[in-house]
């Protein structure tokens, strides 16, 4: 770290019985490598290898596809971060579809640790330059689904210990609580990377996003000057918002922004003003980052935000202004 790149949803979508994840996209990887990006986050849905919540008998043939992702990234000199977006007993999207609860049910907690132990064994010896483990995507807020700071910390410490028993040097990433937004000083001593989010203020990044519970009642996007959640949002407000993360960083923790982006219902001029301030702060802080999506409503490829202009790059219709911000705000090694 810092590392810069994109999330790819190849193994994240809805799972029908017997369906397989998407293969790696060499054309997309070639393009982002050519542009100097070096980080690929792979949010995964464990349903692809688990039937009827039988956690202990995964179909490991599915993991061959993950091997392919890793090989594709390694061959291009890129780092892959493997993330459980849907983990046994928890997902920030449609958690009601889980049979068990990761925060209170031993069966789910044991399954979570079991999975990471198996991945640790499978990828033992792969250099950290090529692979990290991002344990669980966006844990909930305190009080949601029975999650507390204490039971979350205990679960994370247990999983980290299990990985390190097999692969002591494996690079490990943990997402902030509260949907990834809140820093975790209680885990500053764990020797792992802390992954934050760049989605605030949500009425800008998630305007019109039907899966965000507050999307219908949120104010219309405006930047700077949006009044929301007790702040008037501008660059100073963004700086203040990230201060708890910088406080944890001051204790020796590496910070990375595992996800950020703007939904395609926000007018592009507003989105770009917000992106410019957000990314300039990440550059100032020396933090790496990973845009949520390469192609899609949060991506850089024909995302569809009103007013966007596209440039053809290797056959892709690319939001050139956003791409320039992403590249200009990288810290050069």
Give structural attributes:
about 15% strand; alpha/beta; about 325 residues; TIM Barrel; 12 strands; 9 helices; two-stranded antiparallel ribbon; eight-stranded parallel β-barrel
Q: In a nutshell, what does this entry contain?
A:
The protein has 333 residues and is α/β, with parallel strands linked by helices. It has a single domain (4-328), classed as TIM Barrel (Alpha-Beta Barrel). It is built from nine helices and twelve strands.
How would you describe this protein?
This protein is an alpha/beta fold. It has one domain: TIM Barrel, CATH 3.20.20. The protein is built from 9 helices and 12 strands. The strands form 3 sheets. It has an 8-stranded parallel β-barrel with strand order 1-2-3-4-5-6-9-10. A two-stranded antiparallel sheet has the order 7-8. Strand 7 and strand 8 form a beta hairpin. The longest helix is centred in the middle third of the chain and has 18 residues. It is globular and about 50 Å long. The model has no long low-confidence stretch (mean pLDDT 96).
Count of separate DSSP helical elements: 9
Uncertain spans, ≥5 residues at pLDDT below 50?
Answer: none
Largest sheet: 8 strands, parallel, barrel
CATH top level is Alpha Beta
> How is the quaternary structure best described?
single chain
The CATH topology is TIM Barrel
- The counted number of beta strands is 12
Structural class label: alpha/beta
Mean pLDDT over the full residue set = 96
Whole-number total of structural domains: 1
Strand content: 15-25%
Distance between the termini: 10 Å
CATH architecture: Alpha-Beta Barrel
Task: Describe the global form.
Answer: globular
How are strands sequenced across the largest beta sheet? 1-2-3-4-5-6-9-10
């Amino acid at each position: 770290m810092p590392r810069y790149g994109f999330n790819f949803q190849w193994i994240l979508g809805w799972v029908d019985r017997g369906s397989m994840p998407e293969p790696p996209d060499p054309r997309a990887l070639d393009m982002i490598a050519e542009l100097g990006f070096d980080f690929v986050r792979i949010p995964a849905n464990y349903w692809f290898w688990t039937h009827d919540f039988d956690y202990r008998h995964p179909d490991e043939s599915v993991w061959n596809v993950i091997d392919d992702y890793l090989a594709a990234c390694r061959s291009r000199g890129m780092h892959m971060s493997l993330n459980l977006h849907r983990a046994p007993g928890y997902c920030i999207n449609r958690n009601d579809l889980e049979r068990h609860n990761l925060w209170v049910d031993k069966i789910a907690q044991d399954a979570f640790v079991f999975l990471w132990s198996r991945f640790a064994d499978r990828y033992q010896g792969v250099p950290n330059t090529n692979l990290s483990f991002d344990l669980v995507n966006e844990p909930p807020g305190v009080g949601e689904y029975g999650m507390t700071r204490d039971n979350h910390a205990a679960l994370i410490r247990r999983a980290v210990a299990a990985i390190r028993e097999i692969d002591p040097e494996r690079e490990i990433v943990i997402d902030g609580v509260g949907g990834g937004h809140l820093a975790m000083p209680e885990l500053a001593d764990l020797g792992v990377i802390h992954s934050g989010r760049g989605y605030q203020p949500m009425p800008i990044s998630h305007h019109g996003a039907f899966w965000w519970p507050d999307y219908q009642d949120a104010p219309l996007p405006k930047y700077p000057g949006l009044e929301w959640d007790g702040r008037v949002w501008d660059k100073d407000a963004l700086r203040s918002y990230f201060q708890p993360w910088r406080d944890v960083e001051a204790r020796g923790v590496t910070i990375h922004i595992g996800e950020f982006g703007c939904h395609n219902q926000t007018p592009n001029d507003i989105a770009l003003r917000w992106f410019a301030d957000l990314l300039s702060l990440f550059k100032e802080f020396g933090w790496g980052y990973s845009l949520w999506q390469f192609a899609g409503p949060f991506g850089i490829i024909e995302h569809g935000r009103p007013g966007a202009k596209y440039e053809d790059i290797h056959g892709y219709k690319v939001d050139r202004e956003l791409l320039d911000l992403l590249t200009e705000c990288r810290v050069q090694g």
